[in-house]
Specification:
This protein is mainly alpha-helical. It has helices at residues 3-6, 24-45, 47-59, 63-79, 81-91, 93-118, 125-140, 143-154, 157-168, 170-188, 191-218, 226-233, 241-245, 248-278, 284-311, 316-339, 344-356, 358-361, 368-372, 377-406, 409-430. Helix 6 runs antiparallel to helix 11 (191-218) and helix 14 (248-278) packs antiparallel against helix 21 (409-430). The relative contact order is 0.16.
């Protein structure tokens, strides 16, 4: 929303709340809308990892081909992070989210046709699929930076962390939905239906955002002083990148996000293939669902743990470092167990813990941009996610080539453990929740 439009409004101070622009009803409305939006974002994102073992067998794709297709999503995803944050801080994150969601929903619906059409391009078929996947990632790259911009501009500082952390748990719901609905569709109707049904649900959500939540916001009248509006919207100011990039606390945030996303995106993309190859006779729906139930459980645990530490007057920097350290340490221990067991139950439980503990990351580095720069949190989050996504797609891509050469999953897991350890050291030594001034 442009500054001249924002100045038409005035802020209503909530009885429950400080400087929050949203009243209680609006908080519920926006929470549910953005939560289900994140759910659909991840549901559409994880359709390809779910179905790629079937498509690879049908199309004779090698591990390198599969790795290229899976990682190509992140090539586009990295490009729009900073731009998404900047546009959201300047024009309104809700608009950016809506426009982008139309694109990624339609691409998901059309993906079976795209894969079939690619066969007519012969030697260029892989390039065609990769190009569409890049566009898919490009359109999804706007979401989180826009969402953090929306929440930062409409919630007070005490509400932002838990609100955004719970919103990010929608990613687990989305992946869980893909595991439940997608596995059913894959088993009984074939892989094209997975893309089409989930893509249609995503498009339905985009229309809900446009005609239910956004339209409601336009019909209300609020009172806001121009001084406060300018302060919160940041529309008159450019992001002070030089000052930001000269701060070691920002670099600690960026590098830690990169390390964690290398682990998360690699496992997100290759987990179905790992269990399909290592335990081919076990039920696929367990692998596709249980890790994401674990994410929801650990997100709630992390939220309560964080709130308790803050209530006990721990410094916010200590809170961020503690929850992030728990995330890295538990992931490394879980992967070590997976590498040293041949028992399906032990491997599944360990991998569920490894994926579930990402809930602690959501209360750690994920919300750190709001600490470092509340006014430009969308732009800072975009930069952070660019770093994370870059290492994410490199991890997915390299994993495909390593598996092609070594046929050894332990080599992939050892690299993840090494990178996690580096991230643990960086954030523990240099991370901070102090604003960059």
């Amino acid at each position: 929303m442009l500054l001249e439009n924002k100045l038409k409004y005035t802020l209503i101070r909530n009885s429950d709340g400080g400087d929050s622009h949203w009243n209680r009803s609006e908080k519920r409305r926006w929470f549910l809308t953005l939560f289900f939006g994140t759910c659909m974002l991840y549901s559409t994102r994880t359709t390809m990892p779910l179905v790629i073992p079937k498509i690879s067998a049908e199309k004779n794709w090698s591990k390198s081909n599969s790795g290229t297709i899976l990682s190509s999503f992140f090539w586009g995803y990295t490009i729009t992070q900073v731009a998404g944050g900047y546009l959201s801080d300047k024009y309104g994150g809700e608009r950016v989210i809506f426009i982008a969601s139309i694109f990624w929903s339609i691409i998901t619906i059309a993906m079976p046709n795209i894969i079939e059409i690619s066969s007519y391009f012969q030697s260029f078929s892989m390039f065609f699929i990769v190009a569409i996947r890049v566009i898919h990632g490009f359109s999804q790259g706007f979401h989180f930076a826009s969402m953090i911009s929306v929440t930062s501009q409409n919630l007070n500082v005490n509400e932002r962390t838990n609100f955004f952390s719970l919103l990010t748990s929608g990613s687990a719901f989305g992946t869980l939905m893909t595991g439940f609905i997608g596995t059913f569709l894959l088993d009984y109707f074939g892989w094209p239906f997975v893309f089409q049904v989930i893509g249609f649900l995503a498009l339905s959500w985009a229309l809900l955002l446009r005609y239910y939540t956004m339209s409601y916001g336009r019909h209300r009248i609020i009172n806001i002083s121009s001084e406060l509006c300018i302060k919160n919207c940041g529309a008159n100011e450019e992001v002070p990148w030089l000052r930001m990039l000269s701060s070691c606390r920002l670099w600690a945030c960026l590098l830690t996000q990169a390390c964690e996303m290398n682990c998360f995106f690699t496992l997100l993309s290759w987990l179905p293939t790992f269990f399909n190859e290592s335990f081919p006779h076990k039920k696929a729906y367990l692998v596709n669902m249980l890790p994401w139930i674990a994410v929801l459980i650990f997100t709630i645990i992390a939220k309560n743990f964080t709130e308790r530490m803050i209530a006990q007057k721990y410094h916010l920097t200590t809170v961020r470092k503690t929850v992030q350290a728990i995330c890295f340490i538990v992931q490394n221990l879980s992967l070590f167990i997976v590498m040293n067991t041949k028992d399906f139950t032990v491997a599944l439980i360990s991998m569920c813990i490894c994926m579930g503990i990402i809930g602690f990351h959501n209360s750690g580095v994920t919300v750190n941009p709001q600490d470092l720069s509340p006014e430009f949190s969308g732009s800072v989050f975009g930069l952070m996610n660019t770093f994370g996504s870059t290492f994410g797609f490199l991890g997915v891509y390299i994993a495909g080539h390593m598996l092609e050469l070594t046929q050894n999953w332990n080599a992939v897991f050892n690299i993840i453990i090494l990178i996690n350890t580096f991230g643990l050291f960086i954030f523990s030594a240099f991370g901070s929740a102090e604003a960059i001034t």
